[in-house]
Amino acid sequence: MGTSSAPLASWPWENLGSYKYLLYGPLLAKAVASRAWESGSPDHWCFHLLLLFGLRAATYHFWAMFSNMFWLIRRRLIVRDGADFDQIDKEWHWDNFLILQFWLAAMALYAFPSLRHLPLWDARGAAVAILVHVAATEPLFYLLHRAFHRGHLFSSYHSLHHSVKVLQPPTAGFATPLEHLATGGLMALPVAAACAAGHGSAALLFGYTLAFDFLRAMTHCNVEVFPGRLFRAVPAARYIIGTPTYHSIHHMNKDSNFCLFMPLFDALGGTLNDKSWEVQKKNSAGSNDVPGFVFLVHVVDVMASMHSQMLSRSYASRPYSATPATVLLWPVALAFVPVLWAWSKTFVYSFYRLQGRLCQTWIVPRYGFQYFLPFAQDGINSQIELAILRANKMGVKVISLAALNKNEALNGGGALFVKRHPGLRVRVVHGNTLTAAVILREIPEGTAEVFLTGATSKLGRAIALYLCRKGVRVMMLTASEERFKKVQEEAAAEAQQHLVRVTKYQSAQHCKTWIVGKWLSPREQLWAPAGTHFHQFVVPPIIRFRRDCTYGKLAAMRLPAHVQGLGTCEYTLDRGVVHACHAGGVVHFLEGYEHHEVGAIDVDRIDVVWEAALRHGLSPA
User: Fold this and answer.
1) Which domains does the chain have, with CATH numbers?
2) Which of its termini does the chain have fewer beta carbons within 10 Å around, N or C?
């Protein structure tokens, strides 16, 4: 993490990774052994110290959650880009400073036993702390901050903090040990002064420390939270309150706005940016940055609902998997199921920029299992329809439907909405043309025979018709002879012989290429011969049961390298990889296609869309 080999430019526990939290262990063990949470315990101070630092971490975390509630704050974003994977990785251990200050505080309590028995409250101590903060902490921080912007101190230390593009609450902690030692000393100064004057209190220790963290997280949140009219009504307030816009200007223009929380000292030092309040007024008024492309998703299940930037950008920046932490939090997530069930609108989930144009992901607050409840389907269609109409009103060019939002039984692959609203300017896209292309490109050249389940579905039909044109024998598993005949009749006369209807899995016991569009139980997988590869377009993916077989992932494509602001993994996919239907919507948008892509897949367009995807820099995943 350190930018150089300079002293105190890197953390001593840097190689520990997440095991660094064991550094809290000794004091935690002492607290547990002495039952420190009980008021009569001689080590009650251990409990208070652990509680304080837990609350400090929570303060930054809740501000980070707020900073990623894009549905709530998108209009008042200061830098209108998301934190990308590189920034998230840089700031992964942003909370190192809390460990450092935790042990410094513990040592102070050991050195000065009187601090362990502070009274609950002393109003005079609060007055002393405020006075010292204004008279000492603020001007000293201002001078120190300016010093860190010069020569060796900047290149060896402070440049690390300025190496990220988008401010977020974790950025406040993203600095070198030397800077945090200095900042921590200034933060402790008012409380230490109050204690030295004989007016220290537990309330002051908690209150001042948490207020300091609250304001630090707020100024780094990338959202303008103060109304512009406040500074018009009370002009003096602009010199007392440092806003998120004010601090963001410092990161854009490193020669101005050095203050901690009070711009007064920038005014006195001649480093106040003249445009600070004009920009703040503009940001507080908000602006509508209309996306060109929207991908409409839904919640997969209770566990996956926690895979969100809003809850944890670190967790969301890696492919989804259940972890011990998510298992423990499952009851909490379950408690929010009724809340999402009652939610009647889609909201902005994440965003990125492609060729400079804004692309957003909106989410329908519905869980996967709800799509299979007959009584819930009308309500789900209503929400999808409202999202399409909202996108149409905003001026969105393309809205792409993900997974179950385009279910054939639900709305005919989006055809229902196009039929209801023939005048839509926004293009509704299911993206399955590219999904079919990705699956077909996975099948090795020279394959003579495949076994296809879900054979008469939208994707199954397109895959079967495409392969039979190539002379590949397709065993289509379907119980309905009528639906099979309908698909077979769409094929050219000379290709119809390559489509064969089968009704049992046993028919494929010698075929090593299975294309799975209908969920397979482990027992059904047993009919595949050893060495079979399971290509699949079924949601959820089938269980990897056979060790002597291989399993493909859901169809997906890698976005171009020039994508900006992407910091969320799409479900179980790797970074920068999106489901093929998402990529299909992107291609539709970039190509400027004027047609809706709904209903049945046009087999003649499979190769066209594939070539367009490659031309725009998308690549197979």
Assistant:
1) 14-285 (no CATH), 293-429+577-601 (no CATH), 440-554 (3.40.50.720)
2) N
